[in-house]
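Quick one - first record:
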Amino acid sequence: IEAQDVVVVLERTDGTQVDVKNIPSVMDGDGIMLGPVVLTRAQWGDEALIAVVDWPDNINECREVNNIQNLGHWPCGTSD
């Protein structure tokens, strides 16, 4: 299997991209640590934040449905 770059995106539920990481040369079965990722309250916004791995779905996988994780709203509620 040929190594492929993987794009990881943090975006709000309105589609606004907050952070984009390009992970080079991920081999099938390899693990990688991405982070820590630090976001401000303003970057997170008022909506839920979504983490999307393999954006925009460029890599052919056995399980395509496990690439999205809803991180929810700002962890401390509506205020800092």
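second record:
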Amino acid sequence: MSFESDVVLLLPNLRRYAHALTGDAAWADDLVQDTAERALNRWSMWRPHSNLRAWLMTILRNLYLDQLRKQREITGSDETADWHAMVAPQDTVDGLFLRDVQRALYCLPVEQREVLLLVGLEELSYQEASSILKIPLGTVMSRLSRAREHMHSLIFAEDSSRHERPALKVVRSTK
């Protein structure tokens, strides 16, 4: 296989990671396109026999951080973020839970969110995440642990506040 075809095969992985980072489909698509363009223009910088997926995700992450710096949006509590207005599928408790998980994910500090997405969503090893983020292995493990604890507390706190309200009976339509 050629370098170009290997990059094309990894585009779905890059898009999933970009969408999880940004929470915005259009921004994610732009990031993936910019990543592919940069990788193809600078393919000579890639070391054969190294991890192409990690190299591409590093490029994507760096582009994302550059854009955040330009927009000065490095805040975890942006009230205008798309996920605030997302609607859960009708009659779907799972959809509500996923919305809560997504909301909690975007409340995490960027450093914790990145590690959680690389290890949890992209299923990269701690070592691969360490090389993408350019941080020590112990820092990856520490941030991941803190991210998991923070996510749990955010979701569990939302869950317990729901139980304080009167329980409503779910009525399904027979149409």
